[in-house]
User: Fold this.
Amino acid sequence: MRRSLAVLVALCAPASPLFASEGGGGGLLTPNGGLMFWTLVIFALFFGLLWKFALPALIGAVEAREQALRDALDAAARDREAAAARLAEVEAQLAGARTEAQQLIANGRAAADKLRAELVEQAKVEQAAMLDRAKKEIENEKARAIDDLRREAVDLALMGAGKVIEKNLDDAANRRLVESFLASVGGAARSK
Amino acid sequence: MIRRLALFAGLVALPFAPLAAQDAAAPATPAEPAITTAAAPAPAAAPAEGAASGDFITHHITDGYMLEVPSFRPPFVTEICLGRHVGEHGCESPWPDFAIDLGLFTLRGNLWPTKHTIMLALAATIVALMLMLAGRAARRQTAARGHATGFAGAIEAVVLYIRNEVILPNVGHHGEAFVPFLLAVFFFILGANLLGMIPFAATATGNIAVTATLAIITFLVIEVSGIVANGTGYLNTVVYWNTELPLYLRILLAIIVSPIEVIGKFTKPFALAIRLFANMTAGHIVILALVGLIFSFKSWLVAGAPVLMAVAINFLELMVAFLQAFVFTMLASVFIGQVREAHH
Assistant:
């Protein structure tokens, strides 16, 4: 573009007073100071108008949108962080709960084991005690039965012997004789 | 399609017809005798009576006190003299020229508004009004719907693009402060560029005075922002003082490199001014040269190709109008960013 300009200027130069001053406008490459002044004034006014009326609305809207966008992004980042924190919190809680539950189960199992052991032990002790008692009762019953039997036997023997000896012996002396005999028999039986 | 092209060709040729007509009649023009070309290829070119190829280009791209407005009667243009009539077709400033001695050169000029002054003011007014209306609409629509729609949405999209893709990445941290100025520069240049595309109008940004003023403003903004951002460190951008070197080398390099740094400071705005001026002028010269071919050959048989080429160049110019506004803004952003990051 610029080369074409140079060529054309070169072509036109001989044929036209291109660089000569024409009126107040000046030549092509001679700046007109008046136009420079007016350019300055016009640009200043233009800039002032834009600065005051047009750009605040145009850039303001853009900046407001950018701000909104930035805010939204910030809010999203904040929310994400908060969500991540909450997630971590909940996970920690969950892990805690799981540990707690396992602890509870373990505790329950231990308690149950202990209880069972205790119960078994108690049952054994009670069984032994019952056995003992039963044995003792049996012993007692046996001794009483023996005593009863002996008394019955003494009575029967006495009755029989009384019947036999009634006729010839006085009652008291005979009874003592039989008794001492039975005692010797019973003593022998008991020591056995 | 063909009808539409013909119509467009007519529109393209429209602004040049009056120029050609005017120059042919100008007494100072070494024009060939006027030849009536009743059968012109495009309806607007019909009233063109003869032409001198070189002169109407100069007339069109330089400034002056004559304003052309459309007219319904042949030659379909009415000339409005902004100043004082001189002779039959002349027009000059009623005020005397001034000259300010700036040491290196003398700045000459005339404060009476010229064609380009009017065009620049017109462009600035139109763009400012559009932006203000768009801003109001954008605010209202944002309040109602959360986003701007339609024209306001388009303007907002442009603002957003320039701000986020051009200004902020190049200016660097805390670049928001420069957004209004750089956006104003962008829309100002764009408005003037686009107004120059409209028939009968003129391209104010194709005037070195306009681009130089914009470049000077940009230069001041660049250097002031450098001073504000760096404080005394700003001196580093003027005097090359590399503390990593031994003292004698430092002094030597300071003497050698500092002038280059200073020249570099002035080269940037100079390049900005010349780039914009040259690009806007070049396209118009190309179009005018192409259309001028028709008048040089004085035959509507050769009109087809130049008109089509002029149409193509016009589309290119439309792109360049946006591109140069964009480039000026982007380079200004880059320069501001550079000087603000200058603390080595």
